[in-house]
């Protein structure tokens, strides 16, 4: 009988690889940096391994796609905070990857306790990668009025200008100091744990794998702490001091392109370098501040007026506008680089060559549509009448879902080579996307911002004209 | 492919709707008779209306359906109405702050997540709220109104159980348990775990013991309230105002001839209650409940004014209601092409006179109708009375109408 185990990508990989080795399981292709989603195990019993983004593992185990999984407790609790399910059971604390979930405020904001925050007269803005735990926390603390901004990452960079509170995971409170943050509450202590699907545990014999994993000891020396986030050149910001114009730049794989573009445009931004970006680089323009956040989060943040301008992709802008059609954010300038296609992808062996063929693989169950672009995927499914369908939000490593855990994937691709490498095929192109400058449609008309924004825009236009290669 | 109903929801079929409308009509009649005015609040409210301490209990708050609206980029969530009282308080503050007394009633659906899928996540309630006025008399008015509405539906017996939130809260405050800690203890007590009280030593073991005793006692007379005063008042003088209020209500109810039981374990409900809490039961099933919430109006931004209210659970009442008798129906059949036009005219005449007249489009069982009218051209009308099996011929619609009217009046 096959036993299915979901493993996380990222920081925990080496420690888990050690654990599996100690357990007598010879697993190949699973270490920090390996790109396979299906590590092979040559152990004695049929073990199917799949690699997911850590955040997806608790969900995959809860819905019964996997018998067992390894991820940190905070992601399990994030799922259970919203979906009161008994489907996931924690089997064993593996002891590594320790981190706590802190509610933090900026030191410069003067908020050093929850009580002080409760006295905040306006609506409290809380930013987090853990929106469900954040909402549970806000309700438990009886915060009168609050707004939760779910983000894909870099939550610690938002206070104090763009949020009063952030809920972030860090190995220790000491690491917050360097980011100019102060903890006001600890929500949760977390570490990697082995989890199981309760129903499967009741009826399926998993004992061999459970016994192996219970005896294996992880080599904690491999458990790497993530690099500390550098607060940047402007860590000594003033509380709620509104800059005249605020610009958000992306981290991640877009950064390389953006650095080159800003060079071409002649915009000097100190601390925004490939490989070592400060969260608050400094721009040589009076009255303009810069923060580095995730491109996925930019449309929402611009809509809220937390930033006036941001460099992101048209894909993320469209995903946002599908969800909030009247949102005050729009494309200001096409930047021309970072071109990708947003495509519908299926398993390479499926007898499907276009979207209308998807009905053939549906049988009596709902079509499973997975994507990081939840709203684009939703629109694609209902525009194409793929009734009934289920939407599976993913947090990365999306190709891993096909074909076992999803039927269709809505994904971006530059050349199509990654898709082909995973034995998948494109059946439809939804649209083409590239980097763009987006802006808050209200803010860019304000008299006190208009000139600076116009200057930035003109400068970036020169960058576009000077490029025309990407 | 069959599309299933959404989990945790129910359809109301014609027979259910007949019961629903019967309850709604009865409740409306009673409320209008007592001088209450009907309101309806939106299904969507801002979540923050319900998040302050003193509004929804932590358990209820954890089951609220909340989400971002289409323009919710600001991160402010909206909620599907989980409760009728808090939106009514908002409505009062927004529109009627200058009124020294306001009497409102509503028939609305409430939404709360329910994990097992066995119960509906959408629940209909008939509620009445009395804002302003004198406290004990107001409470007794609401209790009388609720009992009248239930008994007029033919549901008997109805047990009235009383508790007092002020009394319980004073005890908890004496034990240093206010806010969330106190709410946790109460949640457990009302869920049947009285054992939690034995762990409440705090700095005052005597008080903890007395609270345990309070939850163990039951009574049904003003004398019982005086006994409570005798037992508890010396150890906790702060109980006096609550005991006075309970005594006054108990006296009024006894004077009006109502049976009731004072039972503090029946005090489940919302965090916003400050005084009397009352519940209505039939064979152990809770049909509704309410209580005094004097701090709620200021909490939603209004002036300091006392208030009290109750809600009856329509789904529970529907389960107890006998089948609602159906009005007799008339089936009209055109037997030939010439009979079509006079058939339609007759159907209209019958409907105008208050009959249910259904035009036969085929596929209907005539057994479902008391009367069947067959019409042919040339003004020939044949009337079949299904209750007696008699067939009669009438020469004009007026003659037929007269006969039906006589039968209806019998």
What's the short version?
The complex is a heterodimer of chains A (470) and B (410). Chain A has 470 residues and is α/β, with parallel strands linked by helices.
Could you explain how this protein is built, in words?
The complex is a heterodimer of chains A (470) and B (410). Helices cover 27% and strands 30% of the residues of chain A. By secondary structure, chain A is an alpha/beta fold. Chain A has four domains: 3-96 and 191-222, 3-Layer(aba) Sandwich (D-Maltodextrin-Binding Protein, domain 2), CATH 3.40.190; 99-189, Periplasmic binding protein-like II (D-Maltodextrin-Binding Protein, domain 2), CATH 3.40.190; 245-339 and 434-467, Periplasmic binding protein-like II (D-Maltodextrin-Binding Protein, domain 2, 3-Layer(aba) Sandwich); 340-433, D-Maltodextrin-Binding Protein, domain 2 (3-Layer(aba) Sandwich). In chain A, helix 5 (131-140) links the parallel strand 8 (124-128) and strand 9. In chain A, helix 3 crosses helix 5, helix 9 crosses helix 14 (447-467) and helix 11 (314-323) crosses helix 12. The model of chain A is unreliable at 217-223 and 232-241 (pLDDT under 50). With 410 residues, chain B is of the alpha+beta class. Chain B has two domains: 14-320, BirA Bifunctional Protein, domain 2 (2-Layer Sandwich); 329-409, Rossmann fold (3-Layer(aba) Sandwich). In chain B, the strands form three sheets. Chain B has a nine-stranded mixed β-sheet, sandwiched between helices. A five-stranded mixed β-sheet of chain B has the order 14-13-15-16-17, with helices on one face. Chain B has a three-stranded antiparallel β-sheet with strand order 2-4-3, with no helix packed on it. In chain B, a hairpin with a 4-residue loop joins strand 16 and strand 17. At the A-B interface, helix 5 and strand 9 of A face loops of B.
């Amino acid at each position: 009988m096959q036993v299915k185990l979901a493993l996380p990508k990222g920081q925990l990989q080496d420690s888990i690889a050690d654990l599996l080795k100690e357990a007598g399981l010879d697993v190949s292709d699973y270490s920090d940096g390996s790109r396979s989603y299906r590590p092979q195990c040559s152990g004695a019993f049929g073990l199917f391994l799949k690699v997911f983004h850590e955040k997806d593992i608790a969900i995959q185990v809860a819905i019964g796609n996997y018998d067992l999984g390894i991820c940190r407790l905070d992601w399990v609790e994030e799922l259970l905070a919203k979906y009161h399910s008994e489907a996931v059971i924690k089997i064993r604390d593996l002891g590594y990857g320790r981190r706590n979930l802190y509610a933090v405020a900026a030191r410069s904001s003067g908020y050093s306790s929850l009580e002080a925050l409760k006295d905040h007269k306006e609506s409290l803005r809380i930013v987090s990668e853990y929106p469900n735990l954040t909402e549970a926390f806000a309700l438990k603390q009886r915060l009168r009025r609050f707004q939760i901004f779910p983000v894909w990452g870099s939550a610690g960079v938002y206070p104090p200008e763009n949020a009063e509170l952030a809920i972030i995971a860090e190995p220790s409170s000491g690491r917050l100091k360097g980011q100019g943050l102060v903890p006001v509450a600890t929500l949760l202590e977390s570490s990697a744990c082995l989890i199981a699907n309760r129903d499967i545990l009741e009826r399926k014999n998993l004992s061999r794998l459970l016994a192996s994993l219970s005896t294996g000891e992880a080599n904690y020396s491999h458990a790497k702490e993530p690099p500390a986030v550098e607060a940047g050149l402007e860590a000594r910001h003033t509380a709620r001091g509104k800059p005249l114009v605020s610009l958000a730049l992306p981290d991640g794989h877009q950064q390389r392109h953006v650095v080159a573009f800003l060079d071409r445009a002649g915009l000097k931004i100190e601390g925004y370098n490939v490989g070592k970006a400060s969260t608050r680089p400094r721009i040589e323009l009076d009255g303009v501040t810069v923060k580095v956040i995730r491109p996925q989060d930019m449309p929402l943040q611009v809509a809220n007026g937390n930033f006036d301008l941001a460099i992101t992709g048209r894909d993320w802008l469209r995903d946002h506008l599908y969800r909030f059609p009247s949102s005050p954010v729009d494309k200001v300038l096409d930047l021309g680089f970072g071109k990708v296609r947003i495509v519908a992808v299926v398993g390479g062996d499926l007898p499907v060559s276009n979207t209308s063929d998807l009905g053939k693989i549906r049988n009596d169950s709902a079509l499973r549509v997975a994507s990081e672009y939840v709203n684009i995927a939703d629109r694609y499914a209902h525009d194409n009448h793929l009734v009934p369908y289920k939407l599976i939000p993913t947090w990365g490593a999306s190709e891993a879902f096909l074909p076992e855990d999803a039927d269709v994937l809505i994904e971006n691709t530059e050349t199509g080579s990654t898709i082909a490498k995973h034995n998948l095929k494109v059946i439809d192109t939804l649209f083409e996307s590239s980097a763009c400058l987006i802006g808050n449609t209200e803010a860019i008309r304000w008299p006190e911002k208009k000139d600076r924004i116009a200057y930035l825009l003109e400068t970036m236009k020169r960058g576009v004209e000077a490029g025309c290669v990407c | 492919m069959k599309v299933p109903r959404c989990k945790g929801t129910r359809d109301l079929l014609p027979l259910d709707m007949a019961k629903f409308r019967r309850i709604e009509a009865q409740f409306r009649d009673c409320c209008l008779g007592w001088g209450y005015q009907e309101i309806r609040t939106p299904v969507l409210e801002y979540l923050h209306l319900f998040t302050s301490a003193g509004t929804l209990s932590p358990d209820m708050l954890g089951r609220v359906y909340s989400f971002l609206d289409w323009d919710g980029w600001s991160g402010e969530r909206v909620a599907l109405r989980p409760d009728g009282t808090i939106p009514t308080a908002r409505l009062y503050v927004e529109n009627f702050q200058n009124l020294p007394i306001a009497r409102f009633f509503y028939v609305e659906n409430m939404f709360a997540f329910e994990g097992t899928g066995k119960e509906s996540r959408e629940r209909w309630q008939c509620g009445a709220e009395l804002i302003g006025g004198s406290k004990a008399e107001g409470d007794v008015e609401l209790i009388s109104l609720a009992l009248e509405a239930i008994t007029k539906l033919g549901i008997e017996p109805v047990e009235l159980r009383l508790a007092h939130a002020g009394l319980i809260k004073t005890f908890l405050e004496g034990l240093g348990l206010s806010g969330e800690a106190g709410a946790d203890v109460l949640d457990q007590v009302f869920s049947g775990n009285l054992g939690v009280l034995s762990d409440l030593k705090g700095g005052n073991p005597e008080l903890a013991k007395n609270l345990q005793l309070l939850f163990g006692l039951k009574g049904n007379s003003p004398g019982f309230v005086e006994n409570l005063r005798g037992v508890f008042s010396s150890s906790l003088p702060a109980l006096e105002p609550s005991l006075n209020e309970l005594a006054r209500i108990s006296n009024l109810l006894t004077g009006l001839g109502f049976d009731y039981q004072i039972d503090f374990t029946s005090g489940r409900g919302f965090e916003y209650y400050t005084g009397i809490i009352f519940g209505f039961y039939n064979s152990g099933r809770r049909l509704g409940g309410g209580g005094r919430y004097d701090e709620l109006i200021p909490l939603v931004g209004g002036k300091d004014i006392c208030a009290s209210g109750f809600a009856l659970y329509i789904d529970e009442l529907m389960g107890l209601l006998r089948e609602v008798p159906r009005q007799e129906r008339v089936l009209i059949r055109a037997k030939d092409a010439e009979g079509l036009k006079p058939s339609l005219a007759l159907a209209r005449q019958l409907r105008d006179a208050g009959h249910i007249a259904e035009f036969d489009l085929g596929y209907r069982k005539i057994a479902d109708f008391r009367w069947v009218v067959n019409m042919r051209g040339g003004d020939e009308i044949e009337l079949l009375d299904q209750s007696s099996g008699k067939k009669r011929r009438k020469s004009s619609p007026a003659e037929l109408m007269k006969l039906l009217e006589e039968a209806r009046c019998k």
